[in-house]
């Protein structure tokens, strides 16, 4: 049963070569599919250090970090290295402590390959913590290049989740497996609580390494739509939002660098907070009223032929062409409404 759902048996995302900033949208973004970019960062000094050895990659990072305290996540022997909930879904299955970054890296290196303890430091802004490394991590496909984040750890698995922004993730040391599912598989992934999450984004409750088809029978459908690929140091993957993706670190020490970007002008325009508010607003309405609002949402949000000819272009406001000024004004209006 488990072998039938082995991630290694899934097809890999397409690979594209010859991608430049000029053709990135045409060759990659327009397809709305995950795309593997082999050798994307082959010339990064960090990648080259890691190809010498994983301790060399760690030493390279330690020499270039500001050594500020970071949250070191520790996963015990009973977790299998999978970031998840505790048995009662009332909290998490890991602990966290503040450690200087160099000390956190040393803790990871000291863990044997067969150690039952797993560790990670997640989502560290490079600009604030590795400013000597920042000039070496430019992204030639994105202009201007978004500020990168760095992720460090041992053999840890992040469950399937989605990002609210587009993502280019670069394996800088070690190996990682990316397993991906299209957004329409959300009903088959058994998503956990939206407001209690390991790292801010809702996660699938399915253990992809050992799926329980009695508890999660519809995962069989998600698996049929899944993609999975193993990436080496220097490889990258483009993940459109909100594709579901799980990431498993396969080496004793792993480094990932990623870049998020969004067409939203302000952070408040990201969709997850709006989804949570919509759930709160609509889920407890009487059936007739809720059905009426379903028509409103369909008309304003999901109707590609929504007519606007009856409104002059300069008077369309939020329905017209977005601008930073319009987005900021709407943000202020929404904040005022929510705080009444």
UniProtKB/TrEMBL annotation:
Q: Which Pfam families match?
A: Cupin_8
Question: Could you tell me which PROSITE patterns the record lists for this protein?
Answer: JMJC (PS51184)
InterPro entries named in the record = Cupin_8 (IPR041667), JmjC_dom (IPR003347)
SMART domains the UniProt entry points to: JmjC (SM00558)
Per the database record, which ranges form the JmjC domain? 112-276
Family annotation (PANTHER family): HYPOXIA-INDUCIBLE FACTOR 1 ALPHA INHIBITOR-RELATED (PTHR12461), HYPOXIA-INDUCIBLE FACTOR 1-ALPHA INHIBITOR (PTHR12461:SF105)
The name on file for this protein is Cupin-like domain-containing protein
**Taxonomic placement:** Bacteria, Pseudomonadati, Pseudomonadota, Gammaproteobacteria, Chromatiales
């Amino acid at each position: 049963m488990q072998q039938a759902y082995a991630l290694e048996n899934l097809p890999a995302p397409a690979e594209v070569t010859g991608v430049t900033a000029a053709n990135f949208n045409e060759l990659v973004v327009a397809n709305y599919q995950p795309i593997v970019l082999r050798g994307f960062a082959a010339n990064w000094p960090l990648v080259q250090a890691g190809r010498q050895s994983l301790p060399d990659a760690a030493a390279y990072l330690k020499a270039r970090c500001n050594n500020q305290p970071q949250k070191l996540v520790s996963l015990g022997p009973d977790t299998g290295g999978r970031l998840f909930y505790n048995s009662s879904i009332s909290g998490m299955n890991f602990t966290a402590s503040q450690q200087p970054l160099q000390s956190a890296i040393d803790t990871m290196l000291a863990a044997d390959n067969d150690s039952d303890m797993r560790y990670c430091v997640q989502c560290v802004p490079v600009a604030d913590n590795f400013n000597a490394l920042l000039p070496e991590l430019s992204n030639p496909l994105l202009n201007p290049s978004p500020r990168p984040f760095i992720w460090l750890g041992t053999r840890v698995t992040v469950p399937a989740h989605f990002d609210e922004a587009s993502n280019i993730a670069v394996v800088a040391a070690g190996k990682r497996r990316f397993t991906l599912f299209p957004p329409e598989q959300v009903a088959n992934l058994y998503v956990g609580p939206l407001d209690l999450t390991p790292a801010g984004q809702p996660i699938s409750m399915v253990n992809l390494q050992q799926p329980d088809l009695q508890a999660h029978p519809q995962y069989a459908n998600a698996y049929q739509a899944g993609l999975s690929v193993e990436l080496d140091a220097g490889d990258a993957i483009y993940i459109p939002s909100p594709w579901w993706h799980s990431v498993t670190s396969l080496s004793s020490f792993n480094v990932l660098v990623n870049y998020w970007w969004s067409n939203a002008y302000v952070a408040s325009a990201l969709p997850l907070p709006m989804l949570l508010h919509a759930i709160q607003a609509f889920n407890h309405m009487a059936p007739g009223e809720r059905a009426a609002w379903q028509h409103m949402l369909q008309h304003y949000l999901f109707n590609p032929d929504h007519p606007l000819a009856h409104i002059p272009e300069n008077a369309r406001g939020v329905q017209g062409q977005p601008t930073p000024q319009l987005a900021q004004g709407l943000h202020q209006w929404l904040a005022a409404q929510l705080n009444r």
